[in-house]
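Hi P.,

Sorry for the delay on this. The queue was packed all week, but I finally got your sequence through. Input first:
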Amino acid sequence: MPRIPDAARTAYHDEMRASSSAKTSSDSEQRWVHLERAHILSQPDPWLHTGNHIAMFALAVRQRDRREALGQIVRIIVAAPGSLVGRAPEGNTGRAAVGLRQTMPTPPDLAALLHPAAA
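Then the structure:
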């Protein structure tokens, strides 16, 4: 099974907690930022990756965003298989407006966690 570095796994959980803590915030965009960062970190791990998309789906439903919710359903289905075969696109934020296979620049702080040997 793919493995992410311990520091990246810890940062993933920190981002997910931050998203959860932001539930009381009136700024829902901040919750999405945390979920997107967690998504980038989670992609190598099928369970974390799928869990992240489930959290994104839940937020989309809470916001009554049908397009995002439907996009997340598709992503929930393909997240684990994509991670298992190493086909998750680098830097992809996981939102419905982003293509499933679209690569994106990885924020430098997250890249350093995912690829510590390169840092």
